[in-house]
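In response to reviewer comment 3 from the previous cycle, which asked for concrete evidence that the modeling workflow produces usable outputs, we include below a single protein chain processed end to end. The sequence was submitted unchanged, and the resulting structure tokens are shown without manual editing.
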Amino acid sequence: MLKLLFLSTPVGPLGSGIGGGVELTLLNLGQEMSQRGHQVTIVAPESSKVDHISCKQISGTCQEMAQHNHRDTPIILPENSVLANMWDYARRVQDEYDLIVNFAFDWLPFYLTPFFATPIVHLISMGSMTDALDEIMNRVAKNYPNTIGVHSHAQAATFPFNNICRVVGNGLNLSLYNYCHTPENYLAWVGRITPEKALEDAIEAAAIVNIPLKIFGKITDEQYWENIRQNHPNAPYQYEGFFNTIELQEKLGKCQALLMTPRWVEAFGNVAIEALACGVPVIAYQRGGPAEIVQDERTGFLVEPDSISGLVDAIDHIDKIERKQCRQQAETEYSLKVLGDRFETWFYELLNK
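The workflow returned the following structure tokens.
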């Protein structure tokens, strides 16, 4: 049995949706490791919602999301930083654990790595964002081999240490996702509503094919959302809101296809495997993690990045995809068992060294 301390993202409480796919990954991995008999404790910002796993909630000011940074953005910690407070707690209790697992895409945990006696592994949730963060991560990757994990090869390729990090993929609790054989007449888009996700491309494609688009996710950039509303007043879309997994899968599963339109390199794309788990084909730009998930012309379509016409053509051919194949791919490649096997192997390899 391993005693594992999970350090959450500091951008918001677990369950808030602010942390995006990191929240789902952390909770799924925590659940699977617990079921395998390991002792898991999560350290997360105050007001986090965590079921069935011990969670130490820490007060403090949340970090700004890294997506808002530029290459030369300096390292910033707000007053009474929740990130600093979380890692101060980890420092004080580290002797009680075999391994610390960092889920924060931030400079501080990497900087602190040499000062901890307990080994730390870092699961990186995004591609390269700033020069300062790349430098500290590269230092840790070289000085502490096999301690940095990424979700996809495309994500790894954005970093200078791409050849010495571990690609671990991702997974879901598939029992929470119901297979839907017969869809209704709408498309879906899921994610944080922010410029790098390019929701407007999905809206334009939906307008051209005249199929309603249902939008699910957290509005994290109010001005961006207002611009979309002003620029597309007559498009057939509806903002549905942010939902938990049970509610989301019920609505997502009934759509004809999920559209994924990222402007940036998605590290993975949890919503893609959530859709597949429901039997929903995925139409995605051939960019980043989704390009490694979608089996082109079998479980969806990969289209030229930033191509509205490519999205439209894929939507027109969506009936060629057998929804059963989508669910089968999720079961084969993205179950919690598969996820757990990868991480358990990684953790034991590191500790045995």
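Residues 336-352 form the longest helix (17 residues). We consider this sufficient to address the reviewer's concern, and the full set will be provided in the supplementary archive.
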